[in-house]
Amino acid sequence: MWGEDWPFSGIQTFAHLPHHKCLLDMEKKFDIGVIGVPFDTAVSYRPGARFGPQAIRKASQRQTSMRGFNFRADINPYQDWASVVDCGDVPVTPMDNSLALKMMTAAYNNLLSHNSKSDKSSLPPRFVTLGGDHSIILPALRALRKTYGRLAVIHFDSHLDTWAPSKYPNFWHSDASEFTHGSMLWIAHNEGLLTENNNVHAGLRTRLSGTDFNDYEDDETVGFHRIEADEIMEGGIQSIVEKIKSVIPSDVPVYISVDIDVLDPSAAPGTGTTEVGGWLTREMIRIIRELEDLNIVGADIVEVSPPYDPTEITALAGAQIAYELITNMVKKGPTDPEIVRRNLELSENLDENLKSFGLSDNSKVLLDTKHKEQVVLHP
Ligand SMILES: [Mn+2]
Hints:
Elements: E1 32-37, H1 52-59, E2 84-89, H2 97-111, E3 126-131, H3 137-148, E4 152-156, H4 184-190, E5 199-204, H5 214-221, E6 224-228, H6 231-247, E7 253-259, H7 281-289, E8 295-302, H8 313-332, H9 337-356, H10 369-372
Parallel strand pairs: 1-2, 1-3, 3-8, 4-5, 4-7, 5-6, 7-8
Helix pairs in contact: 1-8, 2-3, 3-4, 7-8
The structure holds manganese (II) ion.
């Protein structure tokens, strides 16, 4: 009698989903968890994304399970086989980034220690993170790596985020200062979290360092392919989708990361590092819809920074993108354990090969020497 909410009533969980403090209740079973990570002290420009999870939840209020049918996908992700819940937030410290990284890594490990609710799945629940700045992908990938092996990453962003820490002003340097929202994919590569070659950036339009393409060359050593925002004008949406699918196999665990600055500032002004000339929300939605066959094991929407957007369109775009990603996860069904078994085996072999070259995972020994010498503590 009192259980049904209007879009404007009730406590603001994502899409009015049931709220469980998943990190506290280890017995809680679910299939897809939405989790907020309100952390923004690893940004290189404007902070504010710590308010992203609250803003995205607020912007999601017109999503309800009652009226949640996705006409583009032909399912209602909130009324299907999957138990989708709002796991609340990770209470990340804003005072100490080393501690914050530890906290976030522990939180994701905790999240992946749960059991799925559906008896069709033998794997842990999947999750969609509401960020937070983009650095939060590093702890997410660390945890996922243990469960699934190396991840194939689709990275929607106007920026590369594979920059070595030495590509920032770095005369004053510490270990913690290397962990930023522009270097975390470089760190992820060095920690052996990414596939060697099946990773792709989409929507790029950042200015590059120096006088040539050496940022792109570095990016290749981190294992990424690149799709620039402008490519949509030549081949349309379909060419973008085909290029993504040519890089990402259909039988590997995939992580999708959406930096909201992939959208044009006219569609998403509320973010820290805006770049003009980006995609529209409708194009982004269509691209995600075309990726519904992939095995998405985790995803995020990051860099939504409400202080710069009184119109709330940025958070609205974030909420819709989360809905589309959840739709993909539900539509695809539980992840096939055989895919995961194979990927773990492949990842172990790769780690063994690296060790035989005197390299090991979870270390920074892959550090590019060209950059290493620039990181000088005692000049
Ligand atoms: Mn980014």
